[in-house]
Amino acid sequence: MPRVLCAGVCSPSTDKLITLSRQAAQRPGPGFMSEAATGSESGQHDDNANGQGREKDRKKGNDKDNRARAAFDALVSNLQHWQLELDQDGILRLDCDVADSSTNVLSQAVLEEFAHIVTYLEVNLPKGVVLGSAKPASFILGADIREFDAFTEAADVTARIQQGHAILSRFERLVCHKVASIHGFCLGGGLELALCCDYLIAMNLPETRLGFPEVKLGIFPGLGGSVRATEKVGGYKGMELMLTGRMLKAPAARAMGLVDELVDEFGSLRWASRKAILQKRRKTLGWLAAMSNRQPARMVLAGVMHRKTAGKARPDHYPAPFSLIDLWEAHRDNRHRMFEEEAKRVGELMVSDTARNLRRVFFMSERMKGLGKAADFPVRRVHVVGAGVMGGDIAAWCVLQGMEVTLQDREMKYIEPALKRAGKLFAKRLKKPPAIAAAQTRLMADVAGDGVPRADVIIEAIFEDADAKRALYADIEPRMAAHAILATNTSALPLEELARDLAHPARFIGLHFFNPVAKMPLVEVVYTADTEEQWVTRGCAFASAINRFPLPVRSSPGFLVNRVLAPYLMEAFTMMAEGIDKDIIDAAAIRFGMPMGPIELADTVGLDVCLKVAETLGDSEADVDAERAMLEKKIAAGRLGRKTGKGFYGWDGGKPDRKAVDVDCPYGDRLAGRLMQPFLAEVQAVSDEGIVADDDLLDAGIIFGTGFAPFRGGPMHYLNESMSS
């Protein structure tokens, strides 16, 4: 069955519309006008002749109607991914509805059908087109990423992109008013298609998001986005949107000018779209934004963009944003040339190792999302014990996700700093006073632990002492609800040791968050041989519910992430003990592709935590005694790292006082190789021992837990690629 709605196709009103549409597309020639004029002036035709003429005209009109209806029926009968609805005023509703999918993506098949629709519209021009989605939760998510890996040659990608350019340009050139009717996610190719319309209207809901995430896949918008985005909102704003890959909420998109109008209800969205067509609404770009696309402003802005981007990524690691900047600077004055260069450059990027590896990371992240579904274990209330940096920040993060949280510690004076930090996080993320106030009411200090019986999840985040943790569990467990999870945020202590006195060890798991909680996307869901599968599933569901990637990990010293990081950090401390400057060590790691160096990482995690992990892992070799002594000395002086304002670095405003050093040389490569050797060796050992289910999940865990260079595709993938080459 075709996936279409042919509203009123056989009704008189639609017959009239199709006739009028045909007449609009095919202007009557001068002969028609001459006959009409002659007939009205001469008065020489008799009634019989007039009757015959009218009958002939009626039959001719019916033939046109029949041909138009047949063409429409032929079109809709073959559609699988689009719905068409034609109303009596000549407005065509064109909704994307990809078959056998809960979301819309622009696969080759979907674009080919769209091309057939455009061909029909070029001949049978409606009064206007409303471009929308039949999916209840989203507009169009972009291209079908699964098709990307089929390409091995840049020229083939470029040819495919040029086909897409041609289709979208034909739609853009239709001489009727076009309105994009957006709800939910409108990303990548979906936004590029929407920008072909004259006017964009979006639902003002939290679920509505617009943006270009392509840079996160190692490319940039390739269906004309580099052209139309900068035309819509100006050069600087359009480029920033594409370079960052960030997704805008509806109000932010409206403020930028990416969306022309916001509505609050679905009924209003349909009505507003119709009104925009009837009134032929269109927004024009302001002169200041338009100037940003022209020289000399464009040259200056391109330089600013290049420096800003270089501060976050290296061109040899992530070439896409730099290629986009060069494209815009060189060709923004020539629309045709910019389309050509966009296709060529995206084609080259698509088949690069960086893009292939980033697509691998994307698919791994999608797999991790599927490990836990919030619906499997609905969580309303969370109780956190321990209001230190980790416990307090875990509590605040859960509140941000809409949960009620009780935060327990020995005295109120230990909870107050956590509440203050939470207030800053709420202000930064939520911005609006009513939302901030609502979040603050959901975070409650609870010295007595009264929130335990009502909690769905109880997370222990006290100091790393097994006896203290077991004593706490003895108090908590008898008061817990039968369905509730009991979890520890221990960074390295074996769960078997912590669970030995529990009455119900089967429901005890680890929920290991990483610092800073608001930025690190991974949660290790740690289990033992005694843990029942349902509790691991619930732990994964909880992690997903708070927008974190869950990773099931078998209990062992250090779990996954800390076990891999420990030898890496110890190697860095050894290099420091040898007299190598900490800034050079960190620069070498960044050169390899790590987001920060090991010394800065140690400061960020906390030197006390680093020492505890090293002790827990039980490495007693003499060659690390000096490194432990180095940590102990810092800790004794109160220099724990970022959380105390001083560690190996001094910290100000959350940033270390690192010196800029240049290690773009063979020496830097050798240092990076030395740093990464123990890291990669430990990854291989973890793989051999089966600490996680498979190497793909291992790679995902290390990328999202340590920041291991995503453009390399993960440490096991990197090792395998290195060995094969």
Average pLDDT reading: 89
* Alpha-beta classification: alpha/beta
Helix content: 40-55%
* C-alpha-based Rg, rounded: 31 Å
Q: State the CATH superfamily name of the largest domain.
A: 2-enoyl-CoA Hydratase, Chain A, domain 1
The tally of strands reads 20
CATH architecture assignment name of the largest domain: Alpha-Beta Complex
Under CATH, the topology of the largest domain is which?
2-enoyl-CoA Hydratase, Chain A, domain 1
The 3D shape can be described as: globular
Kindly report how far apart the N and C termini lie: 50 Å
Number of domains: 3
- Counting DSSP H or I runs of 4 or more residues, the number of helices is 29
Q: What is the CATH C level class of the largest domain, in words?
A: Alpha Beta
Largest sheet: 8 strands, mixed
- Tell me what portion of residues adopts beta-strand conformation: 5-15%
Strand order of the largest sheet: 13-12-11-14-15-16-17-18
Structure in words:
The chain has three domains: 270 residues, 2-enoyl-CoA Hydratase, Chain A, domain 1; 185 residues, Rossmann fold; 129 residues, N-(1-d-carboxylethyl)-l-norvaline Dehydrogenase, domain 2 (Orthogonal Bundle). The longest helix is centred in the N-terminal third of the chain and has 31 residues. The two termini are 50 Å apart. The radius of gyration is 31 Å and the shape is globular. Helix content is 52%, strand content 12%. It is built from 29 helices and 20 strands. The chain is an alpha/beta fold and 725 residues long. A hairpin with a 2-residue loop joins strand 19 and strand 20.
